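Example record used in the benchmark description.
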Amino acid sequence: MEAMSEATGDLGLRRHGLAPALPRWGWALVTGWLVLLFVITNGLLSWVAPADLNIYVLQPVLWSSLGVLVFWLWRQEDREVAFPKNRWLAAVAALAGLFQVALFVLAGLLAGFGRSPYARQTHLVALNLWFVGTRLAGLELARWYLVRSLGRRSTFLGVAVAWFLLTVVTLSMASFGQLSQGETAFRFSGRLLLPTAAENLLATYLAFIGGPLPALAYRGTLAAFEWLSPILPNLQWTFTAFLGTVAPVLGLLIVRDLLSWRAASQEAVGPKRSSSGAGWVLLVVFVVFLFWFNAGLFGVRPALISGISMEPTIKAGDIAITRPVSPGDVRVGDIVRYRQGHTAILHRVMEMYRQGDKTIFITKGDNNNTADAPWDSSQLEGKLVLLIPKVGWVPILLRQLIASVLGRLR
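Model output (structure tokens):
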């Protein structure tokens, strides 16, 4: 009778198309709910609920529902498989988080500390931990499920989707508006976007090799420092960008080395498994390299051209590489990059003359009818040394898409 009842129940599910469809499309349900929560928690709730009700009741309930959805889908797919609980890797992940915290504390000893913006009263600390804990649990369960579910089709697909979605959801919707604001976009990328992306890449790697617990241990360690420490490092954005992108790389190396040591001691993992993590290291190092190349650390700096003022010499979508120069190295006819407020401009030098201890430049876009307002040598950032045509169209289109989406949501 028991077997018959179970079979009848399965038959009823199949008859309604639920039994095979839910596990197969579970990743779509999790993705859809994750995106919906991102939209709801970044604007809709603030319109319909007071701040305390929003942060301490509604958002925790919504993030908890994401974890419940993931757990339910997992039970539908793998009832016979135990829930992953890699405690050893979780300890290693927490160690990587502590290492990252230690780097920021050391930086704070050099640059100074500031008071934490979060409340210190006991009941408010408890409420903040409730908010952060439910959010982290929901996000890390979703990360693990996406890596696992999509990874059955393609490991790269599972990792890439989970990393991208969780990076976006970790940030606020309003912060993405800074991507279309010139120098502000650069500061936002260095101070917040790239460090968040690097942190989420390491968390995704941990979820990939050990389930949700190691990823939660790593990100939970970072969150505990941010929310519980009474003082936090008061760093310039460039220092934050450097540590925020380099520290996850070092953390990943720590994890890989400890895994290799454990594998060697247990003789459980062959050379093939050990070498598979090299791609992760190379990817994170590449991301760090891109940012610091963009910051001018290597002596040159790229500029994405999105306007038409220098056509036909330089067209929209081209990448212009400039290097820092002194005013004495600039000649009439050179194309230079200078700063006007928060905007970087790349135009041709038409005239230059001395005025006191400064050099005054008159520049003009090749496609413009009038010259720019005079500016002095303190605004000079570099001279064009290389032009790479058309490769910048992808970020331009992406930036336009983000601006369009944000405009519609507003």
